[in-house]
Amino acid sequence: MKRTQDHHRRHGITRRSFFSGAGALGAAAALTNGTALSALLPTPARAAEAAPMPGGTMHLAAPYGSALKSLDPHATWRSQDMVVSKAFHRSLYSWDTSKNAPAPDLAASVTAEADGMTHTYKLHDNAYFHNGRQVVADDVIWSFTRVMDPDKGFPGAALVANIEGADDYAKGKAKTISGLKKIDDLSFQIKMKNYTDPGLLFFDGVTSILPKEEVAKPDFLTHPVGCGPFSFSQHVAGSSISGKKFDKYYKPGKPYADGVHFVITGDYSALDMAFRSGELDATVLSASAYALYKNDAKLSKGLVEVHELFTRHMGMNLKMKPFDDEKVRQAINYAIDRDLIIDKLIKGKAFKAVSWLPSSSIAFDETRKPYPFDVDKAKELMKASAYPDGAEVTIWATNGTNGTGVAQAITPYLAAIGLKVTLKVVESSVLSDALHSGTAQAWLYSSGTGPDPIAALRDFDSRVTRAGGNTTGFSDPAYDKMLDDAAGEVDPDKRRKLTMQADGYIFDKAPVWFFNTNKAVVATQPWIHNVGGNVTEAAILEVDDMWLGKDAPGRS
Fold first, then answer.
1. Distance from C-alpha of 217 to C-alpha of 222, rounded to nearest angstrom
2. Distance from CA of residue 288 to its chain's centroid?
3. Contacts from 474-482 at CB under 8 Å and sequence distance 24+?
4. CA–CA separation, 279 vs 549, rounded Å?
5. CA 298 to chain centre
6. Which of 43, 219, 31, 227 shows the shortest CA–CA distance to 126?
7. Nearest-CA neighbor of 70 among 81, 83, 86, 84?
8. Residue 44 preceded by cis peptide, ω within 30
9. What letter would DSSP give residue 319?
10. pTM of the predicted model, to two decimals?
11. Around Cβ 412, how many Cβ atoms within 10 Å?
12. Are residues 105 and 92 in contact, defined by beta-carbon separation less than 8 angstroms?
């Protein structure tokens, strides 16, 4: 299975973690310094037909668990829930898969002011909630303020906290968020704490714009109301959720489909059978299914391969021996044959990690070379370390291919350089607690490494606690300064270069074994078109852009 339902860092607390004050890069910087756009985009499936066709019902998968956590988009950062919420709700931005960058969504226009931190927004004048009321600036301010309510503990607070005054509101020091200012019914300003691109923060369901009057109703949690392309129809708990086309959706002509139906299950065998029988128009694939589909002449034509912003690794507790020695950590990175493990164990459903940031990150350095598989170099480093005779290492892992499977695969490689491995198999919640309390010596994990690259690199900021994300306990003032310099740079191109420098520095210091970055794969039927590849989460599809061909079963 690709991941647990509740994941950031594959087994962590939230889907991904951003830190207050973390800087971000302008999306256009992704196309500078020789980085080709084509290198950042997902591998497409078959070519689309000439023009979209309206009508039909799309049948899709919510594939990460047997149930939804909540129908309130502010209350959950689980991928399972956000796959669904995209159909019913909208945020200020969305993720443009064609450009691998955030793009205004509910916002008709966004203007950055001269200070680099204030952004002026104009909402679409034809945006309406499903109850028929127009979306206005007050809804944005109310929604963001709700997200910051300290009594609710909403996950999106980590994002909204980047707005000036949000922390003061959450601490009860202010009655409003000072960085949110209404101009008129359709216009408002957001002032950030620093040079953060709001687009990298406010595109997920956790910052959806909601109607206050509907949220206040007792039945909102069973009958959600948003401003998305489909209005809610029915939810059968643990089975499915569906919606019908919203005729007052603000994007002319969209959605193309008359309805959308999500099958809710984490059973990949069931999803495979449903897809092969034509009951699903699109679904994500497990590693074993990917290998089969890739080698099938027919099925392989409909695969969309996405380089997701998640980095799998073996984390090391730098406060424990032998990982307090940089040479040992570097030796581990030379000692293991990543290519062989990815090919044989992961069935090719991964990309070899060449840094903490994946190649789909807007701050990826395409010139960086990975650690080569070099046992002699690894042994040389071990001899020069404080542990020339080796050491005992306990690796914590959850049961599964990317946990215990990888641990067993790397054990002989580590033994070859004098590191004796003991495997400790635990539940995901136990592993998460161990990481954030500093009790684990080493562990196999997956961290969200985007879309904000500086936020991702804060995982090694000495000022961030283990509970906040710096699970290795890495501490280096020179590195911290690199991040601060990048976050404080207003020029996107310069900021990108500074971020690349920090990424390279952490790669050399090797606080983790850099294993792979996830290759998510969406299987699509020949009759469904314009299925993009979202690098922030491949299963979250822009359902308003997709359409069914004339031969689609969903038209019958």
1. 10
2. 22
3. 474/318, 474/506, 474/509, 474/511, 475/318, 476/509, 478/505, 479/505, 479/506, 479/509
4. 15
5. 30
6. 227
7. 81
8. no
9. T
10. 0.85
11. 10
12. yes
Q: Long-range contacts for 210-215 (Cβ within 8 Å, ≥24 apart)?
A: 210/73, 210/74, 210/89, 210/139, 210/142, 210/143, 210/146, 211/129, 211/131, 211/133, 211/139, 212/139, 212/142, 213/131, 213/133, 214/129, 214/131, 215/72, 215/146
Alpha-helical runs (H) found in 336-387: 338-344, 375-384
Q: Which domains does the chain have, with CATH numbers?
A: 306-518 (3.10.105.10)
DSSP secondary structure letter of residue 194 = S
* Ramachandran class of 118: left when φ > 0, alpha when ψ lies in -120 to 50, beta otherwise: beta
Residues with Cβ within 8 Å of residue 99, at least 6 apart in sequence: 27, 37
3-class DSSP assignment, residue 10: coil
Residue 539 · residue 83 · CB < 8 Å: yes
Confidence of residue 25 (pLDDT cuts 50, 70, 90): very low
Task: Give the DSSP letter of residue 321.
Answer: T
β-sheet bridge partners, residue 218 = none
Instruction: Name 521's bridge partners.
Output: 305
Q: State mean pLDDT over 469-493.
A: 94
pLDDT in tens, 423-461: 999 998 899 899 999 999 999 999 989 899 999 999 999
3-state secondary structure of 284: strand
Whole-angstrom distance, CA of residue 348 vs CA of residue 197:
34
